[in-house]
Amino acid sequence: MRLDIKFKSITYKWFINIFLVVAAVVCVAAVAFSSLYNMLYTEKIESLAVEYSDEFSALHETNSATFKDTAITLAGDFTYKDKIEVQVIDKNGKVFVSTTGFLDDVGEMPDYIGAKESGDMETFKGDSNTDESIMAGTIMVYDQSGEELGAYRWITSMSNANTLMTYVIGLVILICVIILAVTGVTGLFFVKSIVNPIRDVSNIARNIAMGNFDARIELKRDDEIGELCDAINYMASELSNSENIKNDFISSVSHELRTPLTAIRGWGETAKMSLGSDPELVDRGLDVVLSEADRLSGLVEELLDFSRMQTGRLSLVSQPMNVSLILRESFDMYKELAKKQEIELVLSLPSQDVTVMGDKNRLKQVFINIIDNAVKYTEAGGQAIVNLDTEEACVRITVKDTGVGIPAEDIDRVKEKFYKANKVVRGSGIGLAVADEIIKQHDGLLFIESIENVGTTVTVVLPIYEEVENMEEETEDLEMLQENNIQQQITGEQDV
Q: Can you tell me whether residue 354 is helix, strand or coil?
C-alpha cells in the first residue's frame, strides 16, 4: 500500500510539475501563434486595402470646389472595385459617393470618428450594419491651407479571412492535442520505469537513516538512477566517517574540558587547604586556576564561534587597521611559551605599516590559532617563522614550522569541521574551520602546504586597504588654487 502511495505521489508530481507545465506552454504557444498569425494576416489585409485605395490620394490635391467632382470621378474609374469598397465623406460626415454605387445607411463609422479626432488614419474591425465582418479605415483629406475637405474610407470583407483563421486555429488545436497525448503516454512510461528501482533505493535509505551505515545499494545502472545509487552509497560512507569524526570530536572536547576542570578543582582544593599556611602555594594554585580558566574560556569561545559559523551569525566589525601590529601582538603571546619548549620563534615584518579592512579581534583570533598550531606541533629544537610581506594589492602572512607535518591524505580535510589529522596533540579540531571562515569573510584566502615529518606552512592572503581621499578636501584645495591664480592675475595686471 505504501509503495502504491509512492507511485501515485510520483505520478501526481509529474502531472503537476511536468505535464501541466508542458500543457500550459503548448497552449500559450498555440495562442501566441494564432494571435501572431491573425495579427500579421490582418496587417497584410490592411496594407493591401491602403494600397488599393491609394488612387483616392488625389483628393489631397483638390479644394472645396473640386473635392466632390474629383471624388465622383475617382469612384467611377476605381480599379479595385472587386477587392474593396471606397466611400468618400464630406466635411459634414455624410457619405456622398461609393465605389459600389450604393449609398444606403452605412451605419456607425468608428474609424471615421477616430480619424477626425486624431487627424491620422484610423481603422476599425468588427461587424457592419448588415452583420458582415469587415475591416474599415478612414483617411482625412485637407487642402493646402489645412482646411478639412472630408475623408475617404476603405472597407473590405473579413469573411474569407475569418474562415481561414478558423482552419488555422483548428489545425493548431489538433497539433496541440497530439503533442499532449504523446507527452502524456511517454511520461507515464517514464514514471513507471523509475518506480521499481526507487523502491530498492528507498528501502536502503531507510536502513541508512536508522543508523545502518554499512547498508549498500547493489543496483547497477548506467543512467541517473545508477548515479543516485552511487551517491547514496557514497553518502553512507561519508556518514560513517562523519559519525566516527563526531565521536572523536566529542571525546576530544570532553578531554579538553575535563583537563582544565580537573586542574582548577585540584589546585582550588590545594589552595583552600593551604590558606594561611603556605602563601606561595596558594599564589601558585591561583595562577594555575586562572590560567586553566582562560584556557577553558578560549575553548568555549571557539565552540561558540563554530556555532555562529554554522548558523551564519559569525559577524565582523570592520575598520581600517594595522595588520602588522595585530600580528606582532599575536606573536608576543607565544614568545615565552616557545622559549620554554626550546622552539625558535621568529617574526619578520616590513619596515612600513600595512593597513587592511577587517575585524581586529577576529583577525587576531586567526593569527593566534595558526601560531598556536605551529608551536603546538613543533618539537624541541624546531623552528617557527612568522612572516608578513606585500605583493601587488595583497598582504601575505605565512607561518612556517618544522613540525610533524600533515599526512598527504589529510591535507585536504584539515579545514573541515571536527577533523583532526593528529589525534595525540590537544585541540578540538574546529579552530582551522573557524579561521578559514573568518578569512573568507574578509575576502581573503587561507591555504595550507605540508609535508609529513618536514613541516607545515599556513598562508593567509588579505586585500590591502587603500584609503580614498576626502572629496570635500579636494574641492577646497581646488577652490584655493583657483583663488590664488585669480589673485596672481590681478596682481600682474596692477603691476603692468
A: coil
